Amino acid sequence: MGFSKKVKNLKESATLQAAAKAKALKNKGVDVLNLTIGEPDFSTPKSIQQAAIKSIEDGSSSFYTPATGLIELKKAIIERTRIDYGVEYQTNEVFIGNGAKYVLYALFQTLLNPGDEVIIPTPYWVSYSAQVELADGKNVFVETTQENHYRVTVEELEKARTDKTRILILNTPSNPTGTVYTAKELLEIGNWAVSNNIYIIADDIYAKLVYNGNVFTSIVSLSDAIKKQTIVVNGVSKAYAMTGWRIGYALCQSEIVSQVSKVISQSTSNPATVSQYAAIEALSGNQDIVESMRQTFEQRLNDIFPLIQAIPGVKVEKPQGAFYLYLNIKDTMAMCGYDNVTNWVNDLLEEAHVAVVTGEAFGTSHHVRISYATDMDTLTQAISQINKFIDSKRI
C-alpha cells in the first residue's frame, strides 16, 4: 500500500507517544508514574459543565455553527482579550478551531508557500516543526541557551533571517522551559518583525499560568504596528482545565481570518457546538477557579523545585510559567554511562517506571521534560525513583 511522502516522513507527537508507552506499561499492571502529558489534573469547573449541559437540553448544541465559530463565542473571546490584554479586536478578526493545535495547523496551511521559512527558537513545542513541514514550509531553528534563560534575542533572529523568512513563532510562557519574556524583550522582537514584514505567531496558551511574581505581557499590547503583524493563538484547554473540549482560537487581521476560514470549511467545519457554549462560560464566567488552579501549580513548583535541583548532575532553570520543568541531564547521563537522552528516558520508564519526555522531541539532545500537572504524591515518588535509577546506573 502506498502512502504520501509527507505522512511517511512525519513523526508522531513525542508527548503523546511517551504517554502511550506509559499507558501500555500501566495496562500490563505496572504502576507507572506518568509525568508526560501537558494537561491540568483538574476536572472542568462545574459552571462550564452546566453551560454545556444547558446547551444540550435546550437544543442549542444540536446544529452546525459558522465554520469559524459562534458569534457569541467570538464576542466572549474579544471581551476576555480586552480585559486581559487591554487590546480591542472585531468579530471579523477572530476564528475558532478544534483546539489551539488545529488553529496553528490551519494558519500554517494558509500562510506558507513551499520553501517559506519559519523561525522557531529551540527548545520548542513538539508540533511546531511537524506542522510547518506539512505545509511545505522550512523550519529554521535558533538555539537558545540556559545561560540566557532560553530566550531568543533580536541579534540571533537577525542572523537566521533570510528573504524567505515568513513567520516567527513565539511561545511565552514557554513549553517546555516555562520561560516568560519581558515587555522590553517583546518590544524589541516585535519591532524587528514589523521592520522585516515577518508575521509573529504568539502562542499564548499558558498566559494565565505565571508564578512567583513574574508577569505575562502580551506582545500585541505593545504597539498598533506589532498588533497588526501578530497572530495571537490561545484556547481554553490549559487555564480552564478543558483539554478534552478542543477549543482554540486566533486573533489577527481580518484578511487572514477570511483565508483561514476556507481551510476550516473544507477540513473540520465548525468545532463541536457544545464545546463552544462551554467555552463561552469559561471566558465570560467567574474567573476565580483559574486563579485557584494557578496557585496550586505555583505551590507544586515551589515544593518540588529543590527536589529536582538535588537530582545528581541535573541543571535546571526555575520556570516562570506553564507547568513543566526542563532538565539538562548531560552530566547525569555521563555518570550513568549514556550518550543518548532517549535511551535514558526509555530505560527510566522500563526500569524505574517513571515516564518523562525526551528533549530530542523539543530540539535539544541533553534534556528531559517533566510535567508537574499532577499530584504531589506522584511527583515526590517519581523524583525518588529517578534518584534510585541514577544510583543504580552509576559507573
Automatic annotation (TrEMBL):
Its EC number is 2.6.1.-. Coiled coil: none annotated. Keywords: Aminotransferase, Pyridoxal phosphate, Transferase. Pfam families: Aminotran_1_2. PROSITE patterns: AA_TRANSFER_CLASS_1. Its cofactor is pyridoxal 5'-phosphate. InterPro entries: Aminotransferase_I/II_large (IPR004839), AspAT/PAT-like (IPR050596), NHTrfase_class1_PyrdxlP-BS (IPR004838), PyrdxlP-dep_Trfase (IPR015424), PyrdxlP-dep_Trfase_major (IPR015421), PyrdxlP-dep_Trfase_small (IPR015422). Residues 31-386 form the Aminotransferase class I/classII large domain. SUPFAM superfamilies: PLP-dependent transferases (SSF53383). It is an enzyme of class 2 (transferase). GO terms for molecular function: asparagine-oxo-acid transaminase activity. PANTHER family: ASPARTATE AMINOTRANSFERASE (PTHR46383). Belongs to the class-I pyridoxal-phosphate-dependent aminotransferase family. This is Aminotransferase.
